[in-house]
Amino acid sequence: MVNCKPFFDKLGLNGSRWQWRLMRWQKNLAALLRGERLPGEVMSPVKIILAVNLLWFGLMFLQGVVFGYGPQTLLAPPFALLYRFGAQRWIPEVLHFGQWWRCLTYAYTHAGVIHLGFNMLVLYQVGPLIDREIGASRFVVLYTLTALTATLLGLFWHPYTPVVGASGSIFGLIGFAVAYFHRMGPPGVALRNFMFRWAVFAFIFGLLVGADNAGHLGGALGGAAFGLLLPVGIRGRRATAKLFSAAALLCVLATATALILQMATWLRA
Fold first, then answer.
1. Is residue 187 part of a domain?
2. Distance CA 151, CA 94 (A)
3. Of the candidates 249, 225, 183, which has an alpha carbon nearest to the alpha carbon of residue 35?
4. pLDDT tens digits for 82-109?
């Protein structure tokens, strides 16, 4: 650990206290990447994903106000603003212009506070159950992978249609849970049924609001495949721990890079 105490002392802060905080954050980050459980789940992936979604939407709202869109930004942001914050469309943006990062940024961009609120509510309800069962690193891989499978089906379903929202990954979590807990037999029946009810509820809601059913199906299929292949026993988890730690780190880096690249497009606007 680099000695940062003199730096914080010069800023007029308690250098010793901030040095200790940095050491604790470094330790927690290392534990998170190893897939270990953190005390009090302070840095649980569910909370981090929730925070990123809320911050991204808050930033979009502020820019919408600056650009003069007014209250519309909160309830129904115009496409120009959604596009600015990472809406994904296979043609032309991804395939013709090479903006691959939109395959991830779209999952953190929402078409209004109601859209955001519903997705975050479901994530808050189902996410911790899966996180506690499979661990942080596997959860990160699952969430990121299903965001990709969700939009990949859209390539064949509606390549010219712009998409936004976390619902592809959320259906991925639900699809995973139904498959994974079903494999556990009687001990997993209650959780499997709980997740299945959420799937029905979310699907009906999606039909009512005209949501991206291709994304929902793609996410659910990707999650179910992950749930069928992921080892259930402790021995299998230990054998794949390093693999998933490395994969989770790649997913975090890819997501962070995607958001940064999207922000970089603002400089060219």
1. yes
2. 11
3. 249
4. 999 999 999 999 999 999 999 999 999 9
